[in-house]
Write a structure and sequence with these properties.
Helix content is about 45%, strand content about 15%. It contains 14 helices and 14 strands. The strands form four sheets. It has a six-stranded parallel sheet with strand order 4-3-5-6-7-13, sandwiched between helices. The protein has a four-stranded parallel sheet with strand order 9-8-10-11, sandwiched between helices.
């Protein structure tokens, strides 16, 4: 390849075609998905791309195809929640990697305020991304309806309340995970089992509370409303919920907490109150996030398969972008027993 003023000229599609010994059209078909290309020709083109260092000119291709070749990761939570909650970082990292394997950039967008929602929706509706991975949607949130009306392909993380016929989603089995945790607490001899729920306008909040109620009833225990306190998935809300529980029901002997981060807050309050975990009160979390191992004692929790969730979100979104119908994927959870329960 020639150089200009000592600078190496970027490789072009013509260079790739010449290196691979195929036509420019064959290279173009490989770059656009490999349809109608023999395995041998595709292998030759892939090898030529590596040798020449060819990089797709995404701007030029978007002008031809009408696609941006990028995807948005849209988090509908305040910015501070993104930095506090380790689940969002785990999910973002895994989605970024799944898309990188397909050479597709991921754009992080945070829409926790009305102004942020307006700016991000304007950007998305203008066609700057081909689809949206929607994270932490709340019931009544206008984002889902706006994206649907604009015809933007969307896949949600978690069951989008009231929108399940409109968009696809990938979720862990929140209800069954809650059932498994409550059964475990019951099996260890606990009978005054409380819960700190997530926000009840989110799928995790609703489904995990439902699993808690169902399992108490199945175990022959009365569902005592004094043992149910709602949090917002933050550590501070977990600490406050534990204070409420200790005042309302001092005979509580176990707490199922709907997130590991809230469970850390519960542990903080119990420690200040002189309660031993698990001797006096057992504590179970949900997520198996880094917060579970950072807790003292380490948390018994419900593991969400974050890598599989991320991979399925990317797969189903790319299928939507390709024109397929919305799909639903529910993945199993797993009980992880540690020292807290």
């Amino acid at each position: 390849m020639s150089t200009t003023a000592g600078r190496r000229r970027p490789a072009t599609i013509h260079d790739v075609a010449r290196e691979a010994g195929v036509s420019r059209g064959t290279v173009s078909r490989v770059l656009n998905g490999g349809h109608y290309v023999s395995p041998a020709a595709k292998a030759a083109v892939d090898a030529a791309i590596r040798r020449t260092g060819y990089v797709v000119n995404r701007h030029a291709r978007s002008l031809i195809t009408g696609k941006s070749d990028s995807v948005a990761f849209l988090l509908t939570e305040p910015q501070e929640r993104f930095f506090e909650d380790p689940n969002f970082n785990v999910l973002l990292r895994a989605c970024t990697q799944a898309l990188a394997d397909r050479d597709i950039p991921l754009i992080l967008m945070i829409a926790g305020t009305e102004d942020e929602r307006r700016r991000n929706l304007r950007y998305i509706e203008a066609g700057h991304v081909d689809g949206v991975l929607l994270v932490s949607s709340h019931s009544g949130d206008p984002v889902v309806a706006r994206l649907h009306e604009a015809g933007v392909p969307v896949v949600a993380c978690g069951k989008p309340l009231g929108q399940t016929t409109r968009i696809g989603y990938v979720a862990a089995d929140d209800r069954d995970g809650a059932r498994e945790m409550v059964r475990h607490l019951y099996a260890t001899g606990r009978r005054r089992i409380a819960t700190v729920t997530g926000p009840l306008d989110t799928p995790g909040g609703v489904e995990r509370l439902a699993g808690y109620r169902e399992t108490l009833a199945a175990c022959g225990l009365t569902v005592d409303e004094d043992l149910i306190v709602t949090g917002d998935y933050s550590r501070a809300s977990g600490a406050e919920a534990a204070r409420t529980l200790l005042e309302r029901a001092p005979d509580t002997d176990a707490v199922f907490v709907a997130s590991d981060l809230m469970a850390q807050g519960v542990l903080d309050t119990l420690a200040r109150a002189g309660k031993r975990v698990p001797e006096d009160i057992a504590v179970g979390g949900f997520d198996d996030s880094p917060a579970a191992l950072d807790s003292q004692p380490p948390l018994t929790t419900i593991r969400q398969p974050w890598d599989r969730i991320s991979a399925e979100m990317v797969r189903t979104l790319l299928a939507r972008i390709a024109g397929e119908d919305p799909a639903t994927v529910i993945l199993p959870t797993e009980l992880v027993v540690r020292a807290s329960a």
